[in-house]
Amino acid sequence: MSQENVEVVRRAWEAIDRRDNESLFALYDPNIVWCSHYGPISGSYHGHEGVRQFFREWTDALETFRARAEEFIDAGDFVVVGVTVWARGRGSGVEAEMTQGHLCTVQNGRLTRVELFESKDRALEAVGLSE
Questions:
Q1: C-alpha span between 12 and 25 (Å, rounded)
Q2: Distance of alpha carbon 79 from alpha carbon 65, whole angstroms
Q3: Domains identified in the chain and CATH numbers
Q4: CB atoms within 10 A of CB 123
Q5: What does the alpha-carbon distance between residue 89 and residue 105 come to, in Å, rounded to a whole number?
Q6: Rounded to whole angstroms, how far apart are CA atoms 70 and 102?
């Protein structure tokens, strides 16, 4: 089952890369919980509208924003994704590159929970693993 979960998460990232929100949200459970454990936008967001709200808040201060999944790690009941993010501040023009770790939970072929950490290592630690 865990390889199937990795494939669900991979399909979600493929939809993100295509900017295909319809396909992306079809992979999100209607009651998805989206949690950010760091940064200026932290906390929990619920449901599809909650995910949309998180991204509105996250990108509001940004002129450009791009994210790429670098690695998908089968972590038993979870999938950990190593992510690189590039952004440019609106107004300041400051560019930044950062890494993130996403801890994904998949049930019945849909993402039910996504947790954002400041690194892949932190996401792995959250499930009791380390590299």
A1: 8
A2: 23
A3: 2-116 (3.10.450.50)
A4: 27
A5: 31
A6: 11
Q: What is the DSSP letter of 7?
A: H
Distance CA 69, CA 50 (A): 22
Distance CA 62, CA 82 (A): 22
Dihedral pair phi/psi, residue 119, rounded to 5°: -160, 160
Joined tokens for residue 72:
């998908």
Structure tokens at 53: 């709200």
The two beta strands, 95-107 and 78-89, are: antiparallel
Mean of pLDDT values over 51-70: 90
pLDDT digits (tens, 9 = 90+) for 70-124: 999 999 889 999 999 999 988 899 999 999 999 999 999 999 999 999 999 999 9
* Cα-only R_g, the chain: 14
- Tokens read off for 90: 């609106």
Q: How much is the pTM?
A: 0.92
**Closest alpha carbon to 37 in 110, 119, 92:** 119
Which segments of the chain are extended strands (E)? 28-36, 43-46, 62-75, 78-89, 95-107, 110-117
